[in-house]
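Structure tokens please, single chain.
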Amino acid sequence: MSHVDSEPKNDSQKIAEPAQDRSSGEIDVPKTKLFDAKAILWTFGKCLTALLPVYLAGYYRMSTSLVVFGMMVYAGWKHTREAKEARLRSAIQLVNDEQEYVSSKSFRSKRDLPSWVNFPDVEKVEWLNKVIHQAWPFIGQYLEKLLTETIAPSIRGSSAHLQTLSFTKIDFGGKPMKVVGVKAHTENDKGQILLDVYISYVGDVEINVEVKRYFCKAGVKGIQLHGMMRVILEPLIGDVPIVGAVTMFFIQRPKLTINWTGLTNLLDIPGLNVMSDTMIMDAIASFLVLPNRLTVPLVADLPVAQLRCPLPRGVVRIHLLEADNLAAKDNYVKGVMAGMSDPYAIVRVGPQTFKSRHLDNTLSPKWGEVYEVVVHEVPGQELEVEVFDKDPDHDDFLGRTKLDLGIVKKSKIVDEWFNLKDTQTGRVHLRLEWLKLETHTERLKEVLKRNESVVSKAAEPPSAAILAVYLDKAEALPMKKGNKDPNPIVQISVQNATRDSRICWNTVNPQWEDAFTFFIRDPNNQDISVQVKDNDRVQLLGKMSIPVSRLLSHPDLTMDEWYNLENSGPKSRIHINTVLRVLWLDEAAVTASLLSSGPLSKSSRPEKTTPHSSFATEGLLRIHLVEGQNLVAKDNLMGGMVKGKSDPYVKIQIGGETFKSHVIKENLNPTWNEMYELVLTSSSTSEVLVEVFDKDMDKDDFLGRVKISLQEIIQSQITDRWFSLSDVKHGRVRLILEWLNTVTKPDPLQKAVQLQSDHSYLNKSVPSAALFSILLERAHNLPLKKSGKEPKAAAELVLGDTAQKTKVCERSTSPQWSEAFHFLVHKPAEEILIIKLSSAFEQPLGSVVLPIRELLSKEDLLMDQWLSLDGAAADSQILLRAQLKILDSRLDSSVFHRQKPVVEDHLTAEEHEEKGPVASEHSPAAVNKESEKKTLPTKQSRLSELAASTFPVPLSLPEEHQKQTTHTMEEQHTPSTPKTHMPTENLSKAPDSTTDIAEYKESAHKDSQHLDKPAEPSHRSVSPSVSAEETKVTSSTDTRPQKTSPDSNFGSKGLLRLHLLEAQDLVAKDSLMGGMVKGKSDPYVKIHIGDTTFKSHVIKENLNPTWNEMYELILSPDHNLEVKFEVYDKDVDSDDFLGRFKLRLGDIIKSQYNDEWFTLNDIKHGRVHLVVEWLPTVTQRDKLEQVMQMQSSQSYQNKSVASAALLFILLDRAHQLPLKKSGKEPKAAAELILGATSHKSKVCERSSSPHWNETFDFLVHDPKKDMLIIKLSSAWDQPMGSLVLPIRELLLKPDLLLDQWLSLDGASPQSQILLRAQLKILDSKMAALVAMGSGPVLSNKQTATTGQIQLSVSFQKKLTLLVHNCRGLVTLSKDSLDTYVSIILLPDKSKATKRKTSVKKKNLNPEFNERFEFDMSMEEAQRRELSVCVKNASSSFMNRDKDVIGQVQIDLGHIDLISGVTQWFDLKEEQN
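Here you go.
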């Protein structure tokens, strides 16, 4: 019969008592009856207590679910408590009889063995355990004294609620801490002793705490702690005690188990137990786990901060490249169909953790991301990579791998495949680089240059250096408001990284002794920002800034100084020690990799392709059809009574290819300006046949032809000349023919890209930069078809708009094609080759994506290897050879733009005979007659030269000039017998545009002499780019200035670009239900710069808003100008203040580019992510292409477009403006318009030659398209003329500068204005980062997704859309979700373009599987945009504005509708 006390006891007591009874063997018979009665009463009381909650719940009509939930919580708590106590009892029993336990054969696994058994190099130190055992009672006394006399008063003083706290019981028990093994390292640095101490503490400690004010009791009864602690004895000194200090820390987090008692029993509730253990572990890690250390100095005057936070051993750059053969975790149709996985990786080194982006539907992801980690201790620290499958509910584990970073330090570079553990299949490819720390700057430039070539798809670019900041102390800080001592905390920021120091309480002379580490991208352009604040982060106690570049000139790259604080007290200063180290990868010392992880089994497959000798030997023929002259008129009017003109077009045939130009209406001197390219072999014997026709309604009339030998084009390389047309009376065409050889060096690439920006053509052609050749040889282990048969493998190669297909092989899983293809590449840094494998172009077998830019880093721009297929089996591969060859153009753009070949220099012998002999001497009458006849053609040549700044080719005259030109030529023409044969032009004798520069200059000089002759007013000017000196007679008595006299500040302004990205952790100002429920805020930002204010749009109900807006302002470099930012919450009445901060323009100009989080001042919390950029201006046109590329890749919510250049205009004066209709002189004023921007000049006094001398500036977005229009009027009433100046004309001017007199259109022939136009390209650092695939990244970007939807889109006679299902839908609605999908084909919103699915009741992962068809053509479908919205059908009428769960918009023009696409799309929140 059991004995039961009158009071309940805990479980341990209940277990112990029967043991005592059995051991004693005595039974107290007289007391049995009494104890039975007590037991019955106690059992009855427990039953009543258990039933009481049920009774109360029924009495008060509470929900049954609450009772069930309470019972579940209690059961979970009970289970957790029992499991924890069982582990504690087992551990105590093991400690009590360890020797017997070890010698027994009861071990189930290696993990049950003590630490010293697992490691042969770990020594057992029983003597130390005996010392600790004897000293443990005295250690307990010391700890008890520490708790009662030091810790308890500190806790009571920290809060008024804890003033009655006291320790009622402190007992550290009789189980001391044990050291199960010690490992002494011998490969460490001299001057230190390195020990790894393996500790195990299973203690029967009992500590009870009571807060009498609230009648709360809590405590701990039993603790387990296991881990490896590293102990460093340094520095070693030549005096007692030999060791200067002892530093201790855990490299990995130790394992901790705590058995709670009293009120803290609640911490064992499931959910709370994990949270509480994690919080306690975080507290321990904050001072005992790397990078935190506990340092105990043993001698005086030691640099404790450097010992507590020494410089890292090095930095490891981790290239997370790819993975292969991962496990498939996704299933479809409730597990019937096996799917793929959506893998992502987590990379971890100690507390440093990185997460890659996830890739959908692949078992062989290619991440291509780069991370950098600080390594404090090697050996010891490990790299851990875990791979997961992304799912809406719970991410599935795909495997992990670990590597000791000591191996990376020895090998310098480890580039290996690592097999994943804890999974059946899978491996990951890593490249690890050990970067050592250099104490000098000799290799800094080389490091910066190397980093430019490091390509990463992650946000952070590689670092060039590491910065250690040792924060020591401060003195004489100012007092808080109310004359109270502050609680100083320091915020140190470098770029977008901010670190907070610990808080020093109630002092104006704080000592922090903290250390921080920062990665530095470029030490020349970054600053260290230091702000001393009160612990509320609102009141600023002082600040300062240190340029990192200052360290570069100091010895050992170290500065240890006192700095005076700004915005602080007069004597406030702070002591900081900064150390910079350059990160250097010593590639010369790289040893062979110490690892091998099972390379791919190649069996007997060839490692390389075997290409034919003719592979990649082609060249490029570039044909530039410029213009025609003096063509035959074929059209007649009024039955032939009136001679008409022709509508000419050109056909060019070569090698089976035909190119056709557009038709020029009614013109005998047409300008086509079209370019064609064709890939040919250099051994080809083809001829270029050029035929000109007149476009008619019935049959096109023949206007002549010319044949040109391809070999002669190849021999001359470049030919720019006029070709006479055969088989007609007269006419000729101008062609520029260029044969481009290819090279395997990337050097000419910049010139090829520059050629693209210098030339524009009417047929929208873009000159190619490279020739890309592909040899697709074979494939290996392709997947079988769904029917189980081997596939009939075929491949489609797609690059841009060009697609080519292979043959269809016989059935085989290892087909062979051995087919070669070539593609024209315009932008090698951006274009991508996609190879799609399928069975007879029906069932997909896999694909390969090959960015062309990868070849730029290969030797000889060549790749020849096996590549794994995405969307196929793990070992499915193809063997190909990819060769990129840069087109080496010898065309000199400057010469080409400078001068058009003179007509007379290229006349054939027959034409000279038609014109007759030319006299060597001319009489005055002959000169006048010759001048009258030659003025127009000569002037046309000159004007065409000037128009070359508008087009890359000469232009023909306007129509009235063409009429007179044609009439003059017809008068001079002498009929001759038409040719009956068609000779081939000999290009080897034709003058070359690249070699006859002197001849062109001479002819240009003759043209200028012709232009100095008197001319008819009707032939005055045809283009605003023609200067007045070239179109008007200059009199010897004209005293006008030929140039402007600008001020020295003209063109000195720069551009301030602000990119407002996002904010985080803003203060919530909105309240609901009269303040009972805390709401959010509706934030927006105001930016004040001088008199200019920008205002962002409002983000509704969001404390982490994303604006993504960009603003630009032209400013003079005023270093004292402040840029103020204010954040507000939009309200109906008065907007609430959410914080502010300000920047000095001088600091912005100094840093030029800063991507940083800025903490909001005068508010409790909140910060704003901002990219601030000061763009200096340059006159180098080669910078333009990079800026234009950034425009196409960046988009902003406020529809802003990044400017490419600044245009500065000095409007000096005008000359001989027309009089008003009343006969009075005008009050001249000018309006300058560029795009949507206009500026007005002042209104001058009455004068026909007014003086303004005013300057204006404009933002230019596209210099090749934008045009400046200047409108002159009399006091804004009567127009007086205008001028149109295309900005592209300035691109061809020296220094991008135009300074001259220009004639006015719509005024008198003598009316002119004098102006100075200066174009300056914006030198953007952000454009360079974007070009490298980097740039600003939105931290809040991923928070906008509200689920995913799976769609199939294809086109087979009709546009077909299949809505499969949704997953992971997110909603703020409290009602259950009844979902359906709404579909609209934009831009139309008619009934014919709308569809919707059925409604699925109460499901966050609904399956629809519904098909919709739209009757339209392929061309029409590609112009459409598909809008898909997932909606909540159960939303009430009052919440109809919140019925959209998420939406996605798909541009059908970017989808291969023929092959079709099936994929998951992220649903985004509905846009405001």
